[in-house]
Amino acid sequence: MLLGLSSVFPEAPIFTTVFDSNNLFLKKKFEGKKVTTSFLQNIPAWRYLYKALLPLYPIAFEQFDFSGYDLVISQTTRFAKSIITKPETRHICYCHTPPRFLWNFSGSETPRILKPFLSYLRTLDQITAKRVDTWISGSENARERVQKIYHQPSTVIHPFVRPELFYQKSFDGGYLLVLARLNKYKRVDLAIKAAEELNLPLKIVGSGPLKDDLMKMAGKKVEFFEHISDETLGLMLAGCKALLVLAEEDFGLSSLEDQAVGKPVIAYGFGGTLETVIDKQTGFLFYEQTVEAVTGALQKLERFGYNEDMCRSNAQRFGEKEFISKFKNLVTI
């Protein structure tokens, strides 16, 4: 949602720890924006050292100078709220979730050797959270987490769906679609196994540490894509039988983008998905992360169908104009 915030304040500079200028997709997205990076940008091979550099990210954000600003907005799932501002500068944090890897929202077991290190980072995370003047959460799900972990109230402003998607005409491409980072928590393996069991083509859009493993287990009907244009993504959404969301999401913007083009969602029924998918109308929820649960939901979709008009109208509740209006109103309070 960084681009979304940038549309609210188009002249505002952007501060980030690192920026991959070799990534043509990102370069095009932020063309014309003033982007300032931290000292981490100068570390050789920083693209491949994210985990090793983890302790340095809060420090990197602390090094930025915001002394000339009346308002600073941090947009984060991790460390951007670590910025330091003068007492008279208002710091608004737009938080999509407290750090997953610290607070274990994915339910994975922490290796014993890392527990002292993560304990330190959790303490640091709560300390830096006190630097925020006003909290905004990207979902009710995130609001509950901010209250529980940081003991702070927050206002919910949902991310918005790209307006052009509502004009995309749907068609029957006959394939299932996954839009996700390819890591363990996203459970993309379930999509591959479910698609194989039902003999359906599957397109997977994303990158991540499990890509090679997932490609090895995938059959001939599975296609992988990484960096694609907005136009291509819109066409992929418009042609899919359904979007598969296989993990507990902080909010679930991709499920709304899918509904914006009139297509249904098959989703794990926990977390932010409960705010974006209307069960049995704009998709079907499943409640166990098993192949049987996913195939069962897909079979329900095949048997009972879905409401395309309801999909589009549900997505329209999360519009760009409403997002901009709510953000500007909160800033002026």
Task: Set out the fold topology.
Blueprint lengths: L1 H7 L5 E3 L7 H6 L5 E3 L18 H7 L8 E6 L13 E6 L4 H4 L11 H15 L4 E4 L2 H11 L4 E2 L18 E5 L8 H11 L3 E4 L5 H7 L4 E4 L4 H10 E6 L7 H8 L4 E4 L4 H4 L6 E4 L4 H14 L3 H9 L3 H12 L2
Parallel strand pairs: 1-2, 3-4, 4-5, 5-6, 7-8, 7-10, 8-9, 10-11, 11-12
Describe the structure.
38% of the residues lie in helices and 15% in strands. With 333 residues, it is of the alpha/beta class. It folds into 2 domains: 170 residues, Rossmann fold; 154 residues, Glycogen Phosphorylase B (Rossmann fold), CATH 3.40.50. The strands form 3 sheets. A 6-stranded parallel sheet has the order 9-8-7-10-11-12, sandwiched between helices. Helix 10 packs across helix 13. The longest helix is centred in the middle third of the chain and has 15 residues.
Features:
Rossmann fold; 2 domains; alpha/beta; four-stranded parallel beta sheet; 333 residues; single chain; 12 strands; six-stranded parallel beta sheet
DSSP E strands, number: 12
**Overall radius of gyration:** 20 Å
Domains (count): 2
Treating each run of at least 4 consecutive H or I residues as one helix, how many helices?
14
What spatial order of strands do you see in the largest sheet?
9-8-7-10-11-12
Largest beta-sheet details: 6 strands, parallel
**Could you state the order of secondary-structure elements as H and E?**
HEHEHEEHHEHEEHEHEHEHEHEHHH
CATH topology of the largest domain: Rossmann fold
Average pLDDT, to the nearest integer? 92
The unreliable regions are none
CATH class of the largest domain: Alpha Beta
Q: Roughly what percent helix?
A: 25-40%
Principal-axis shape: globular
Helices and strands: which structural class? alpha/beta
First-residue to last-residue Cα separation: 22 Å
CATH architecture of the largest domain: 3-Layer(aba) Sandwich
* % residues in beta strands: 15-25%
